[in-house]
Amino acid sequence: MMMLMCALLTVLARLACVFCATILLQSLAWPCSNGERGFSYPQSPKAPSIVSERYRTAYHFQPPRNWMNDPCGPMYYNGVYHEFYQYNPDGAFDPNDSLMNMVWGHSVSTDLINWVGLEPAIKPDIPSDICGCWTGSATILFGVQPVIIYTGLIDRKANQVQNIALPKNRSDPYLREWAKVGSNPVIQHVIPGLNSSHFRDPTTGWIGPDGLWRIAVGAEVNGIGTALLYKSEDFMSWTRIERPLYSNNALNMWECLDFFAVVPGSNNGLDMSSEIPSGAKHVLKTPSKMTIGCGRGSIMVLSMLQNHSLTPNTAGESYGLGVTRQIVIQMILQKAGQESMTIWLDGDGKQLIQWPVEEIESLRINEINHQGLELKKGDLFEIKGIDTIQADIEIDFEPTSIDDAEPFDPSWLFDPRKQCREADASVHGGIGPFGLVILASDNMEEHTAVHFRVYKSEQKYIILMCSDLRRSSLRPGLYTPAYGGFFEFDLENEKRISLRTLIDRSAVESFGSGGRICITARVYPVALVDNGATHMYAFNNGSTTVGVPQLRAWSMKRAQVNVMKGGSVIDA
Ligand SMILES: *[C@@H]1O[C@H](CO)[C@@H](O)[C@H](O)[C@H]1NC(C)=O
Ligand SMILES: *[C@@H]1O[C@H](CO)[C@@H](O)[C@H](O)[C@H]1NC(C)=O
Ligand SMILES: *[C@@H]1O[C@H](CO)[C@@H](O)[C@H](O)[C@H]1NC(C)=O
Ligand SMILES: *[C@@H]1O[C@H](CO)[C@@H](O)[C@H](O)[C@H]1NC(C)=O
Ligand SMILES: *[C@@H]1O[C@H](CO)[C@@H](O)[C@H](O)[C@H]1NC(C)=O
């Protein structure tokens, strides 16, 4: 399971996904249409204010101001990328803010890096979305007609239906204005056992073997997480197919589903609204067992479509190389930011890989390069010459011997974070810990450690990767866990363990072993604000000497992301 999971882990994840909030919504009574405040957002005690322009990310997507959560309906149309997102126009979210005005924020880009903010595309203004326009998706019908299908909140109990909006003018290159169809809601909850306050996040459409459109909608049915399946001839009127696309009682609700196809041996992304070649594998992205939020760790169910339903791969099934470019936009929680990632299938066909889109490399400047370094136990090598708070670092580690790997205990798999806390960067091991120390203050009182430890299992090597935030900031009250995950590694043959870390001020994203594992975090060091500069080191605290055959790092330029002009978003 771990192998299929590339958790997008987040700092301050105690700010649960907006949708978990429906539990509270149910028990509160207030009119949603007049903006009256009464909603309490689930979060742990408030951290002291950490507002500083210096923490604002420089090349991740963020709205110009206020709260955002889910990215929704990403779309590429006539040469323009569209990024919609759940946006609260009334403020940065605080416990007194109301979710009732949730709109679809809208930005456009031609390169996935620089974004121009537009007016919100969809706002609550019809009975079937009067309490909020929540997450959904975009489909381009027959390559020409963009359609958004999204969840509307119809009342203060957060009962949910699905609605459709179309661009008013397809010739407008930015598709600024969207009109809701008169037949909304196009899908209502009429299913026995469906919890209608858990019925949301319709997927992008695809064409089934009968030539009809399909979409899936996340739901709780009889207490079981279910991807309900619908079909339609015209994308407007929908009939439910009795058998769900997939269901699994590990969770009682699935949200932010994503469903896409990958073809072994193909380099191109598949258009789900065209015929899917036979032999394609489908990927259903669902929240992981441990979280129900949209941004906090996902499981990818890799499967075959059989009889219109998903059949998860049996363990051990493998097939040829599939490299398919599927861009997903992931959310980083807490005054959320986003970035675009490519997902593809690993060579053994069992593991999905996540990697930042290559476009991000256009922001690299001031390359520094080191070769043939050697890190002995206790060594700390300072990486200098780049902007340490806005950087992209690629480093390969090569243990000089594999004899000293400590034995692996399979029970650790259940709680990698615990292992990261107990076997942290200061606990000497056989092979590792080695990795990076970033955003470090002069005296190391503040620092974030991203590191690996190699264990020997019966037949294979297992690597633990940690992103340890526990000493990331001297500010009190922050959520600073040690995140972690395990992955298998063929140490004898692959030899080099790679780490890529993107630092974007308060956002830190680390990709282990070419994207087999990724860990994303937000950190708020005092030093970043006070000094504006921090230190960065490569280190080794294991008894085995670790070679660094290659270390390349760059400063990262600032991207133009929803820049404000004269107090308002630029309207291109
Ligand atoms: C529906 O979900 C809400 C929120 O989780 C829960 O409080 C409620 O009991 C559920 N209703 C049913 C009928 O299961
Ligand atoms: C929330 O509302 C309560 C009652 O109106 C008020 O006392 C409190 O200061 C508000 N909190 C914030 C963070 O605005
Ligand atoms: C649609 O957009 C195009 C391109 O911006 C513009 O020339 C045209 O006038 C618009 N049509 C309407 C009806 O607004
Ligand atoms: C396919 O699904 C239908 C209805 O969901 C069912 O009646 C039929 O037996 C299934 N066929 C196979 C081959 O599983
Ligand atoms: C390496 O271990 C020593 C001794 O435990 C510790 O003082 C030091 O901080 C560790 N290095 C890193 C980068 O954590």
Polypeptide structure, described:
Strands 22, 24, 25, 26, 27, 28 and 32 form a 7-stranded mixed beta sheet that branches. The protein has 4 helices and 35 strands. The chain is mostly beta strands and 572 residues long. The site of one 2-acetamido-2-deoxy-beta-D-glucopyranose has 3 residues, from strand 13. One 2-acetamido-2-deoxy-beta-D-glucopyranose binds next to helix 1 and strand 9.
Entry summary:
With about 575 residues, this protein is mainly β. It is about 5% helix and about 45% strand.
Write the layout of secondary structure elements.
Blueprint: H1 22-27, E1 67-77, E2 80-88, E3 103-109, E4 116-122, E5 133-141, E6 145-153, E7 160-167, E8 178-180, E9 194-200, E10 206-207, E11 213-221, E12 224-232, E13 239-248, E14 258-262, E15 281-287, E16 298-306, E17 309-312, E18 326-332, E19 337-345, E20 352-356, E21 364-375, E22 380-382, E23 390-399, E24 406-407, H2 416-422, E25 431-440, E26 448-456, E27 461-468, E28 482-489, H3 491-494, E29 497-504, E30 507-512, E31 517-522, H4 526-530, E32 535-540, E33 546-556, E34 564-565, E35 568-569
Parallel strand pairs: 24-26
Antiparallel strand pairs: 1-2, 2-3, 3-4, 5-6, 6-7, 7-8, 9-11, 10-11, 11-12, 12-13, 14-15, 15-16, 16-17, 18-19, 19-20, 21-33, 22-32, 23-29, 23-33, 25-26, 25-32, 26-27, 27-28, 29-30, 30-31, 34-35
The structure holds 2-acetamido-2-deoxy-beta-D-glucopyranose (5 copies).
Domain Glycosyl hydrolase family 32 N-terminal: 60-275
GO molecular function, one term: hydrolase activity, hydrolyzing O-glycosyl compounds
Domain Glycosyl hydrolase family 32 C-terminal: 359-555
